Amino acid sequence: MNPRYDLKRIIDIEKWHKLQDSLSLVTRMAIITVDYKGVPVTKHSRCQAFCQGVRKDGNLSSYCQKCDARGGLEAVRTNKPYVYRCHFGIVDIAVPIIVEGQYIGAIMAGQIKLRDADLPLEQIVTRPPNAETDRKFKELEPEYRALPELSSEEVSAIADMLFHLCNYIVGEAIQKHATVDMYKKVLTAEPAAPDPVSAAPQAYEQIQAMQHELSSTLIEAKIKQGTERAYRAANPLLQPAFDYMYRHKNENVRLQDMAALCHVSPSYFSRVFTRETGENFSVFVPRLKIEWAKQLLETTDLSVNHIGDELGFADPGYFIKTFKKFESLTPAVYRKIYSREQRRNSAD
User: What's the average model confidence in pLDDT over 242-254?
Assistant: First the structure.
């Protein structure tokens, strides 16, 4: 687990809990946030009296924990909110928080009843009949009847809203921390045991390396703003290759290396990749880099040479040639046309 993806490290828990309380109030759902291990990082917001009573029972609480664990796993597996029924038939939602393809935690929401039956839901944990359990339910029956009721449409809309909102906030927090960390490195960097002859060149090289790393971080953030998420492969065998390409935008990835990463032969990887994308690997990769280049031309003032270098084009001429091959015009002309269109739209 990458430590920079630790929820407790990247978000202000106190502020996050205030947001969680507000979301709970608006949605009428109980909400709690857990890390990638399933350990709560916040307290429950609006936990219903019925569920509080059930979770205090040693026998019944174990079934609640099984529901939480199974729901979280299904959300991670499908990479989207998972709506299900608990062992008492109450509706719950597991909302995964996934950043750069890595699962870092989840929002567990719910403790409500459905007003209609339009949403077919799985009861993921079944509990064998038990006289003691029946007695406990009768004790808590008034609290059960008091559970909020929502329509299927409301539940689906809330699940999607929590998924997009929480992933956006956490993603932005990670980018902010990465940028701040880079600045701190630059500001606190000191040459160790300076040599009168070599100290200046070493310091210069060190600063250059840090500036390049900071620039890469900022460029990565700019590209992400224009890209909702990394490519999700229909064939999971290829996902490690796509994840690598999206995380290492400045590298010239080779088919052989991506095949090795996916533990298959280059020829088999090539066939599966072409079926997946509709393009040969040698066409898909440069086209993808040109799409990233267009985003940087549109959103930054970086020079054409700088953009080409950041995307792994060591030769500026080759970058311009490749760009023109896919877009039928040079990067400089593309930026000029885009800027003119933006000014015209603003005037309108």
Answer: 90
